Fold:
Amino acid sequence: MNEAYSEALKSSEPWRSLLAVAREYHSRGNKRDAREVLLVAEKLAIKPHDPSYSSASIREVIKTMLVMKLSDDAHHALQNIVTHRERELVMAEVSAWSARSGDVVTAKNLVSGIVNPIGRDIALVAIAESEASYEGAPKAMQTVMMITNKRKKDDAYRRIAMKLAALRDFSGAEHSAALIRNHRIMDSTKASLARIRARSGDLNGGLQMLRNIGNTHIEDSVLKELSSELARVGRFSDSNLVVSRIRDEKEKSHAIGIVSVEQAKVGNLSAALVNLSSIPVEALRDRGLRYVSATTAHNGEPTRAYNVALRIESDHERDIAYRSIAQAAAGDGAHHLAYNTMQSISRMDEKALALVSMARYRLRQGDDRQAFTLLEDARRSISRITSAHAKDKVRADLALVYAESDDTGKSLPLAKAIANPRLRDTALGKLAYTLATNNDIYTAQQSTQAIATDSVRVIAEDRVASAAARRIKPHRALKASRMLGSGRQRTIFLLAVSRKS
Structure:
């Protein structure tokens, strides 16, 4: 822990790294040291020449203080925000956060010092929501009357309704929803209440509440969601009843497809196919057949899955189904069947993705030689793929499987070659974690450094640090931490290692 504290002080944002150290101390019951670290973090969070940065930083420190029940320290920390308007906005956010954490007393104390109506309304909405849970609807309604902004008042009524519904006070919830002036928000709230009521076991009550919604699109969306949930727990008669009430053909097609997949999961393929035949939209019927085919394959019935795939009209959807069958067969060790199914695929990108999946299973089953043959076949096929997006998907999958096979010389260049920036950053982050899990910290760090988006890179660095910590013995931790690039990473790493000692 001492080493983690030292590394936190050296990081680019010491206060943020110190919050992690403080949370670790607190989780171990060492409240005194946690508080001392937080007080240091408070001082380091202040940048006198950057009020906006200081406000945001102090807000995070205060939230951590409140989690640790350090209310006096949190109130004192607010005085570090020099701009009155900024201080009030932070007070409002912290008040709202306190209320939603169940500390209504602290929230009310803070809101009493806020003059700005915008900030007061933010806090009062959260207080009313919390009061609905802990003190009842009448008290919450009194607080709503203090809110001046109409949109915020509607938001408060919506939140109160949701809290009351969670307590199964559906009458009170409906009353609160009826007070909302904005019809779109009112319909959305009533839909949520109907959903909660149906999930609580009162399906008929939930369906009755849906009849009070003026927006048929919202009603259909909730019906589709409910039918899916009922199907997932095997209540197919109820789910089909709910589906029959959906008016829009597209929404109904989606719902039937989802129910059919759930029927296939429990082995009732004939019922699934009958259901799918009733889908009015052909493209969605094909998609449903593809999902049912994949589900049947993963149930260990690749031959029946193949027969389902033959019913698909769309070449692309059929190719995706064949890929799923090949993958499932490879996972079961039926490599001859997997290879033959892969040969049925017409699109080069789907064939390449199938080859990568088959290679991954070969690796897991210890057949490295055949795995590398399949990977090389997939890599060579990239040049024959016309779509840039499809090429990127193949490169991303290939990079990960090469990393899993310890062939890092191919994995990182493949990930870097991905053209789409967002997909490239995501692939590099996954690659970094895989490499760190395999104890290749050097290449993992190279992968994180290649990530262009700051937020994605920070998450990837944290995951690398945590993965590396799992493989290091405590007495080697300090030396091993030098492999990591930033003070924040080293702090995360040392904290993770300290949990093992």
Notes: DSSP finds 30 helices and no strands in the chain.
